[in-house]
Amino acid sequence: MGACAQRHLSWPRWLALGVALVAAPAARAQAADVAYQIKASYIYNFLQFVHFPTDVLQGAGTLNVCILGEDRFGPALDEIDGATTPQGQLKVMRLGRFSSSAALDGCNVLYLVDSERQGVDSIMAKVNETRVLTIGEFAPFIRHGGLIELFEQNDMIRFRINEELLNKTAFKIDAQLVQLGVK
Amino acid sequence: MARLSADTHPWWRRTSLRLKLQSSIVGYALLVLLICAVSLTWFANTYFHQKAQRDLQMLGEVLADNSRAAVTFDDAGSAANILEASKGNPHIRMAMILKDGKVFAAYPPGITSEGVDRLRPGDGVWLHEDHYYVSVPIVVAKDVKGRLYLQSDLQEWEEVKGNLYKVFSGLFAGLLVLTGIVSYWLNMHITRPLSALSTWATQVSRAKDFNARAVKHNDDEVGTLVDSLNTMLAELAKQESIRSWNEILETEIRERKEVERDLIAMRNRAEAANQAKSQFLANMSHELRTPLNAIIGYSEMLQDVMTDEELDRVELAGDVDKIRSAGKHLLSLINDILDLSKIEAGKMDLSIEAFNADELIQDVIGTIAPLAESRGNRLRINVEGEIGIIYSDVTKIRQILFNLLSNAVKFTHQGQVDLTCARIHDVHGEQVEFSVHDSGIGISQENLEVLFKPFSQADASTTRKYGGTGLGLAISRSYAKMLGGEIVVASEVGKGSTFTVKFPVQMEGIGELFAEREATGHERAASRELDEPLEQTQLLLIDDDEAVHNILQYQLSRHGYMIHSAMSGKEGLKKAFEENFDVIVLDILMPEMDGWQVLQKLKSEAKTMSIPVVLYTIVADKEKGYALGADDYLVKPISKSKLLTTLKNYRRSSSNKILLIDDDRHTLELVDAYLADMDYQLIKAENGREGLDILQVEQGTMIILLDLIMPVMNGFEFIDEVRKHPEFAKIPIIVISAHDLSNKERSLLLQHTQVIIKKGEYSRQELIGNIETILGNQRDARKRSGS
Ligand SMILES: Nc1ncnc2c1ncn2[C@@H]1O[C@H](COP(=O)(O)OP(=O)(O)OP(=O)(O)O)[C@@H](O)[C@H]1O
Ligand SMILES: [Mg+2]
Fold first, then answer.
1. What is the ipTM of this complex?
2. Are B78 and A12 in contact (CB < 8 Å)?
3. Over the stretch B488-523, which tens digit does the pLDDT of each residue have?
4. Same domain, B676 and B726
5. Pseudo-torsion of CA B724, B729, B732, B735, nearest 10°?
6. Between A48, A85, A156, which is nearest B72 by CB?
7. Which residue has its alpha carbon closest to ligand 1 atom 28?
8. Same-domain pairing of B380 and B457
9. Residue range B381-431, pLDDT digits in tens
10. CB–CB of B536/B563 below 8 Å?
11. Residues of the domain holding B565
12. Of all atoms in ligand 1, which is nearest to the CA of residue B332?
């Protein structure tokens, strides 16, 4: 088990902490942190319900998670970096803000932070959405061709899934997840 | 006993077959049903519970799996939607997802089931208060995100149970109906026939009607039972009929025994009566014979006197002969009746002795020849081969032959009567057969059947025409049977009859006994003769016929004659010159030299001139014989007694004292008359005592003539007394009696006396012959001892 087990054991502690943060009345900053912590866990959780075919994953046993935009996650991403999923080990790559020279090729998962709302079309143009799982934390990400769109509702973070894209992706999205995201 | 054992039988042995069958069928069906019900219920129960658990588990797992995303992404609404899916199953009472110890989602919505997780920690299905619970972890990426709980009631099982109950009660009802039908069927086809059979059998056994038969309806085991019962009954009926036969037989036997007892009583009475009759007859025989004896004796004497040529009273001779023959007839009648009554009383004894058949034949022929002649019948005797000596009762055989011959002569007129005699050998051994054939009137078929019955004559006219009593054949047949033989008859009316009598040469069994006794008697007599020195009368017989030699040898040698045989005249003359003879018996008809020549020669020679010559021939020429110097003339055939009487005149004898003991005055006088012209001195006594006294006084008594039945001292007592005196013991005794002797008496007398003569059945010649023989012997003996 080794390191993997290590990470695994640490996960519930983290989650418990995260939940405690969500539940407790806290400062705004803290609240922002909590929201990204949840979003980080969402990324991880999505990957529990998504199956990549082996040809999509270049590096065997590694899932490259690319974060594009301002770094609002902070240490929350560290928690999921290196964590294992049925697909392989997560590798978080913080790409910072988008530039035309940005190398998006190696990404399996592309997370667009709210800061990239303006240049979404140009980003999406550079990305093959059928091969890369795209997550955006702003609306209307789906309309721009993204797959999963995160939004807030009743102080809860929710998500939607682009129905049109569902059957086109090279990877498979669990029906449960689709159900949660499609209502 | 049977009742008791029936009571002691256990109840199940006593219950009826029907009840047993029914209860066993019901019981069996119930048992099967129960087993089915229990096992089915058990299986159903187990199956249901397992299935319920499995289903619950599965449902829980599915729900848990489905709600993974909802739980992961904290979407309680979605989770509730998922849980709602369980409403399709009406038995799911509750579904709930707990997350972090709190109800995350629940169905039906809004229920709070706090502490469900505490019912049982961990995973799995458990039963609690009639509900199944299942707890399934919701695992995402190996992390337990929450727990799903399901609660299911057992309503379904209750339903199944209810259904089972319904089915089983239905089955039970059906079973009862089916059992009813089956037992009805069984009742119809097994129980009812059986009980009917048993009722029937009980009736049969009660009524003892073994001829009843059960009716067979089926060809099954009951049918077989019916068959075997019927067979058994048939057997019983047979037994029963045997038993009833036995009973009938028993009653018959009982009746018969009663009849038998009556018969025995009757027989005893009859025997007593018969005894009285026999006694009466025995007395009568004596009483009747004694005077008859006198009548016959005197008439014979008268006849002799009449025929004496010197007295010229021949014309009266015929009348006297009538008296004599009437007396003889009366005597024979009396004898017949007495014989018959003796035979009937079973008191006729046999007296077996050895005798010569030829002698017997001659004897009988001698008696019957005059009768045959008087009826103009020719009499022929045909002896086939050598008959020889016979051991039997000569008196009885003589009587049989006489009866047969006299019948033949009587019922034949101017005809032929043949007597054939032969010794034969058949299945019964050595036999003598006498056959009397006549050419007379014959006998009709129906008369043949009654012929041998006493007092039976062919028809009533027979008596008138031929006389007789019808006793002859009855007696003859009885005698023949007593001698171990039989008489058969063959006859044709108008043609003639043949009577054949056959009997063993030697009487067997008692016969031998008698023969032995007789033989010893004879031996004694013979030895006495030998003991006493005697000189025999030397007799020369000149005859060419060998048979004559044999007969004379046999007839005379016992009476003190020594027979010298000459088979021709020449030989006779030669012997006569060479030896001394007391008498010469000469035949006339001989080849070469006939009797006349021989006689002349004898009378012409000095040596032989004085020897008396008796001519013995069939040529009836007395005158010539006497003229040539013959002393006597006898015509063949001749009876032994006649021969002896004739010859005694030429014996070497002298007069002597004779003691006559008889209580009957007529007899005394008759014997006196018989012996009057003889050279005897007759002394008379009227009873044994008197006789003994005379013996004491009169010395030199040579012979005693003794009657048996006398007053004071009878003949038997007299003999006893005489034997006690040695000086008289050797005096010869001639018994002359009318008494019928029993075998015992006869054998006793034969030991101590010389001759037994029956009153009325002897002639003068016979008596004199006997006396002469004895006296001759004595004289000879004395002569010899004297010289
Ligand atoms: N040879 C015979 N021929 C014809 N009839 C005979 C002859 N012998 C016997 N019978 C018949 O049988 C009958 C019986 O014979 P049996 O000798 O018993 O009596 P019987 O001669 O009449 O009298 P007896 O007692 O005097 O002999 C005779 O009466 C006669 O009718
Ligand atoms: Mg007769």
1. 0.78
2. no
3. 999 999 999 999 999 998 876 544 444 443 443 333
4. yes
5. 0
6. A48
7. B457
8. yes
9. 998 888 888 888 888 899 899 999 999 999 999 999 999 999 998 888 889
10. no
11. 533-648
12. 26
